[in-house]
Amino acid sequence: MTSSPSELKSRLAAYATEAGFVRMGICRPDAIPHAALSLATFVAEGRHGQMGWMADRMEWRGNPAALWPEARSVVMLAEAYSPLHDPLEVLEQRDMGAISVYAQGRDYHDLVKKRLKTVGRWLIDAVPGAEIKVFVDTAPVMEKPLAQAAGLGWQGKHTNLLGRDLGNWVFLGAIFTTVELEPDAPEFSHCGTCTACLDICPTAAFPAPYQLDARRCISYLTIEHKGPVPEDLRARMGNRIYGCDDCLAICPWNKFAVAAREMRYLGSGEAPSLADLAQLDDAGFRARFSGSPIKRIGRDRFLRNVLYAIGNSGDPTLCSAAAQHLDDPDPAVSDAARWVLARLTGESAHA
Fold this sequence. Notes:
By secondary structure, the protein is of the alpha+beta class. It folds into two domains: 5-85 and 104-177, NADH Oxidase (3-Layer(aba) Sandwich); 196-245 and 269-345, no CATH class. Helices cover 35% and strands 10% of the residues. The protein contains 15 helices and eight strands. It is elongated.
């Protein structure tokens, strides 16, 4: 029995919910004509920092229709990872490391992609001859503008996606398909006069509402930035060692946040000790963060972040944890160790 377009869409949405997603929306591949100019401006102003991949294949990233010309619809799906605790509380525990909520459990790339493929296979079975391609943060696809075009929510003043019945603790995935599906109405901003996310940013990474300078963003600095972090930003990083949730956590729309259905995202909720993390060698790092998105930045960058957090702890008893890395072969790590000792003792340290 052949379904009508509206019936097919309803059945697809029901199956997506069954698969673990909390919201589904649909748009055309050409639904974000403004994205190319916004991306080009962002890159031209250097706000992408060291993320050279953002400048690569901009013609695809800024124009989803060019990525796969045969696609007729983009199915945008959201999966919730809403925390069970206040992510801002750990910032007061200066001897502990603050890890972004999304990275406290299993790697979302693996889990979301598996669900996308499950939903995609259902669509292939439901529509003979249908073709699909699935994407989750690993291809030149601008998921947030597409999600807004598909009606899931809007890009807030912090540039992340949020929704009135969703909050902003969501992962996004996309299914490009050759199937013609009825598009949803795009969403528009409901931020109003609120500036909570802009005001809380510890590094002033938002030059204006709805604009981000990644070079000042702690998530970028701790995850994407290679080498030493500029000294004027280190103290502002506090004890954040992987990512930053401040702008997400403060958003008042989170009172409507959807609960996470996948418990493997949530982790234990307990912050790790900086002193313990400073002892990790490469093998220890890989073992501790196996299956976590943290693993991809490697031991050296992670240890650099841990040392900055130790330097911001105000606790001289942690000096020994930093001193052992003065001769580390990675220049950013040894530089961070020297910075810690100078900051906590007031004296210069030389390897």
